[in-house]
Design a protein that fits this description.
2 copies of one chain form a homodimer. The first copy, chain A, has 7 helices and 6 strands, in the order βαβααβαβααββα. In chain A, strands 1, 2, 3, 4, 5 and 6 form a 6-stranded parallel β-sheet that branches. Helices cover 36% and strands 15% of the residues of chain A.
């Protein structure tokens, strides 16, 4: 399988980095081909703006939707977006790994989705390409998320509410919207206060999950 | 009342800009004091990284939570974060206006929340300051959101699901988490295909909503 690993953590010695390294080696051991997007290391531009569209359809007024639809026909996205789109096209499986910030993605990961999953590339309301007819149909996506808060806080009836429900903003409204099948999210709660032993155990649990793909 | 208006749209001639201008004049007419944060115009930095903490507690390894807690005691946040925190402290009401990207905020707005609503400033797990004891208690927050998709798509049982449920990632997990009271979100559906008359009517509906505050 061809796997694109989209990863968002700032620190190479973090538990998130260890998770990512565990994943890359587990996937390669199983014979999968892997490409990565290490968003902070790439200094990936998070903000969707006019610079994303070097050849504008309407130079006098910036309409993001219109420019994205236009660029998806002409290929005139900025080079950093095109590079990510090529990796998405190549991949069978997309894994998104990040620490949960306010029950959702960090801005740099949201920016990757805002800019790379452009209308005309991932979905298209004009041609009614969404969900069953989403433009990334045939691909599979998976979230891997770590939290600071406890599983109790993130459960139904807990203070924040069920994290898997909250993550539907991504699993349903991004992945399924673009036509992708979504694997169960791999969640590791309360990582900031976990013991070294628990951390080692979680790396092994993640390795086993990926080995079963 | 003191109102901080946090706004995210790239284009000064957009419907979103007209909404923002309508709001600012309606609020000023009613005698409120208003400060604004026009995120794209400010080229607001969306990405939380080590540059946010010019005086590090642990220079050898970047732990965002630890550095934010430290900076909230010493004041050593980067100047752009401090400027926004001062506006938040000043304000009684915070209004966040943005076009919905993938059922949620654009990355630039998420980045404002990730960076400005730092642990130690908006909430603090160490002192159990969250929800009823959140650090922004006494303030009120409100979302103003425009969508491309229809109200039917964003209703319970619709393709995306109930937008007000999806926005709980913000209204509950950000605003209420920080201790703020949340006003009902003001939502305008399907703006990209609305007629000029509908647009004028929506501006008036928004003006009346704000006049009632």
């Amino acid at each position: 399988m061809k796997v694109l690993y989209i990863y968002a953590h700032q620190e190479p010695t973090s538990f998130n980095a260890a998770l990512k390294d565990t994943a890359l080696s587990a996937l390669q051991e199983k014979g999968h081909e892997v490409k990565g997007s290490d968003l902070y290391a790439m200094r990936f531009k998070a903000v969707l703006d006019a610079e994303d569209f070097p050849v504008r359809k309407k130079p006098e007024v910036f309409k993001p939707f219109l420019e994205a639809i236009h660029a998806s026909k002409t290929g005139a996205f900025s080079s950093d977006i095109k590079a990510e789109m090529e990796k998405v096209e190549w991949a069978d499986l997309l894994i998104f790994q990040f620490p949960v910030y306010f029950s959702s993605m960090p801005a740099i990961m949201k920016g990757w989705i805002d800019r790379v999953f452009a209308p005309g590339f991932a979905f298209n309301p004009i041609t009614q390409s969404a969900y069953e007819t989403g433009l990334l149909k045939g691909k599979v996506a998976m979230l891997v998320a770590t939290t600071g808060a406890s599983e109790e806080w993130y459960s139904k009836g807990g203070a924040h509410g069920d994290l898997r429900e909250l993550l539907k903003c991504i699993t349903h409204c991004v992945f399924e919207y673009a036509g992708m099948e979504t694997l169960p999210s791999h969640i590791i709660y309360e990582v900031s206060s976990q013991s070294r032993e628990k951390g080692v155990w979680e790396l092994e649990r993640y390795r086993q999950n990926l080995s079963g793909l």
